[in-house]
Design a protein that fits this description.
8-stranded mixed sheet; Acetylcholine Binding Protein, Chain: A; Methane Monooxygenase Hydroxylase, Chain G, domain 1; 6 helices; alpha+beta; 27% helix; 28 strands
């Protein structure tokens, strides 16, 4: 068995009888013994004397983590005798090796399993006092470890949303920041990241805010400071594993919600590609107080899904390698599925209906006029609904050009239908459209002139009827020619516009 007190380790043996009649005592290789005196009190004495150096109370053998009372400043005396500097660490009688933790029942647990969130001792003694961060005397929690401070940032953008009406972008992201702090000692680290905790104190960590935020402050969950073992660590005999701050990075995990300004270019809407920069500022470090570790700080994970956009690219940008400000650049490309089904397809169907009125019979003016006018009104309402959901701009967007063409197309269709209209008045005579010119005068006027002469000749009446039929046939042919010409010109024009429009949209993608 071994007893460790101060910084010395002594090997003791167990003997069945004690000089002087005692039942059990421990005799070490040096001039020391541990004997049971009275009232369950065990004392460490120098061999052959009754001077008590250390004492503890235990109804059983005094092994394991017990409280030993220093009766005669044994630590100072032993260090003077051995020629060592004074560095007391406590006293414990144990059978365990220096790389094991001693439980209260004298069970031995490897130091790697101490404070691993699992009770390896029967009483859970290995999970007590598990503070992982122990600042040194030179630690100042309000100052960074060094200037410039080597820094590394990984960005994981979980969700991103484009706010067109407010010219902003919303993003939920996680920043993983790592640095080294040689001003503290870390204990009980595992092979996975473990939260750093300390007693009645705080650790220095970067204070991060967004620089171009539209809100008063960026809302964030409480930052989590973590670390994991990257080296074997130093074994403190029978107690814990110690890890220096140098060589074992500290990781700060921040979950942030940002609402930042973004300048959108809607000239090519809805086939637009938008680029937004989210600027972060570390407030508790001077302007040139960081030294970025590149390219390890260039890892940015983009969100996989967005309902309106494809996240085309995510980048990590720096003004320079020593700046306390950094950028996360997001590039969005709008999805076309919504506008294909909600805008383009209905518009093309309405254009087809309006164009179809040019193919109706010439005499069906009521049907042609009603259908074309109704289609135009539907287009105007769709245009008003679309523009209401977009911010106002001083320039025409691509979607505006689409609606302007469609409205102009239907307006020309209506003018064509009006120009070729023919209606019958209450007297049974025909009235021409408002845009039609009659070079020889109305037939009705010539009929009245002929009737005033009171011609009763039947041949003259037949000639009158034939002349009237020829004029009506001539007007009808001219109207049909106008309809055919308009249908061809408008059809070819609309086809060319649609091809050019969607070809340009495809090229911009």
């Amino acid at each position: 068995m071994k007893i460790s007190f101060c910084t010395l380790t002594w090997t003791l043996s167990v003997t069945g009888s004690q000089p002087g009649g005692g039942s059990v005592y421990f005799h070490g290789v040096g001039p020391y013994t541990i004997t049971l005196d009275h009232n369950d009190t065990w004392c460490l004495k120098r061999w052959g004397t009754q001077v008590k150096l250390l004492c503890t109370k235990s109804r059983s053998l005094p092994v394991g983590p017990l409280s030993w009372k220093d009766e005669n400043d044994i630590c100072t005396q032993l260090h003077i005798e051995s020629g060592l500097q004074l560095a007391p660490t406590g006293v414990m009688l144990t059978k365990c090796s220096p790389d094991h933790f001693t439980c209260r029942d004298n069970q031995c647990v490897p130091l790697e399993k101490v404070c691993n969130s699992e009770n390896d001792c029967t009483d859970g003694g290995d999970e007590i006092d598990c503070f992982t961060a122990h600042p040194l005397a030179t630690y100042i929690s309000t100052s960074p470890p060094q200037i410039p401070l080597p820094f590394q940032v990984d960005v994981n953008i979980r969700t991103a949303d484009v706010d067109l009406m407010n010219a902003a972008v919303r993003a939920n992201l996680r920043l993983r920041i790592s640095w080294e702090d040689a001003r503290m000692e870390m204990r009980h680290l595992q092979n996975v990241y473990k939260r750093l905790t300390l007693y009645n104190s705080t650790l220095w960590s970067p204070n991060i805010q967004t620089f171009n935020s539209l809100e008063f402050a960026t809302t964030a969950s409480h930052p989590v400071i973590m670390a994991k073992r990257l080296s074997p660590g130093k074994r403190v005999e029978g107690e814990y594993l110690s890890f220096p701050g140098h060589g074992n990075p500290v990781v700060n995990i921040n979950d942030l919600h940002t609402h930042t300004y973004c300048r959108y270019d809607l000239l090519k809407y809805p086939d637009d590609i938008q680029t937004c920069n989210i600027t972060f500022q570390i407030l508790n470090v001077c302007q040139d107080g960081l030294k970025w570790e590149l390219p390890s700080s260039s890892e940015v994970k983009c969100p996989v899904f967005h309902k309106e956009f494809w996240v085309k690219d995510c980048r990590f940008l720096l003004p320079d390698n020593f700046s306390s400000r950094f950028f996360v650049q997001l590039t969005f490309r709008r999805k076309n599925a919504y506008h294909i089904w909600a805008t383009y397809l209905p518009c093309i169907l309405l254009l087809g209906i309006g164009y179809g009125t040019l193919l109706l019979p010439l005499d069906n003016f009521n049907e042609r006029g009603t259908m074309s006018l109704t289609t135009l009104l539907v287009f105007i309402s769709l245009y008003a609904q679309t523009t209401a959901s977009l911010p106002r701009t001083a320039y025409l967007k691509r979607i505006d050009l689409w609606y302007v063409f469609c409205i102009a197309f239907l307006t020309l269709v209506i003018f064509t239908n009006l120009a070729t209209s023919t209606t019958t008045n209450t007297r049974g005579t025909t009235a021409e459209g408002p845009f039609w010119w009659h070079p020889s005068g109305p037939v009705e006027q010539r009929n009245e002139a002929w009737s005033s002469k009171k011609l009763s000749n039947s041949s003259t009446q037949q000639q009158q009827q034939q002349e009237q039929q020829r004029h009506e046939e001539s007007r009808r042919k001219r109207k049909e020619l106008v309809l055919k010409t308009a249908s061809v010109v408008l059809g070819v024009t609309s086809l060319i516009f649609i091809i050019v429009y969607f070809t340009g949209a495809y090229i911009t993608m």
